[in-house]
Amino acid sequence: MTIEYRENDETRVAEIIVRGKITVDDYIAAVEPMQAFIDRHGTVKFIEVIESFHGFDPLMLWPGIKFDWKNIPKISHVAVVSDIGWIGPMSKAAGAVIHSQVRFFGMEDLDEARDWIAAA
């Protein structure tokens, strides 16, 4: 599986770890518990750790857009963690157009990202 998903009901924080190419099956396996987590808590925070990224199956594009459209207002903070060069600017651009607070961290700053989310 290229997406590893964890959640903590106590802190209302979910963590997603991405490795490789995301398939439709990977997406569904992660998004179903994410949706249940959001539905349970109303407002949540996310940490997205992108260790490697080799694209995604285009069939998940529309379901992904629908998930985001429905749920972005319910996500208060997002910490994006990666050493992939283009991820930082893309995260900052996304943060400029959504209401969620988005902050980018390098892989060496994963603990700092977790601390930022915990304090939010």
Helix-strand blueprint:
Layout: E1 3-8, E2 13-18, H1 24-41, E3 44-50, H2 61-71, E4 75-82, H3 87-97, E5 101-105, H4 110-119
Parallel strand pairs: 2-3, 3-4, 4-5
Antiparallel strand pairs: 1-2
- Classify the helix fraction into a percent range: 40-55%
Number of domains: 1
* Helix/strand structural class: alpha/beta
Tell me what the CATH architecture is.
2-Layer Sandwich
SSE pattern, N- to C-terminal = EEHEHEHEH
CATH-derived topology:
Transcription Regulator spoIIAA
The helix count comes to: 4
Number of strands: 5
What is the 3D form?
globular
Low-confidence stretches: none
Compute the average pLDDT. 93
* Percent strand: 25-35%
What is the makeup of the main sheet?
A: 5 strands, mixed
Instruction: Strand order, main sheet: write it out.
Output: 1-2-3-4-5
Distance between the termini: 30 Å
Question: How large is the radius of gyration?
Answer: 13 Å
CATH structural class: Alpha Beta
Description of the structure:
This protein is an alpha/beta fold and 120 residues long. The chain has a single domain (3-119), classed as 2-Layer Sandwich (Transcription Regulator spoIIAA). Helices cover 42% and strands 27% of the residues. The model has no long low-confidence stretch (mean pLDDT 93).
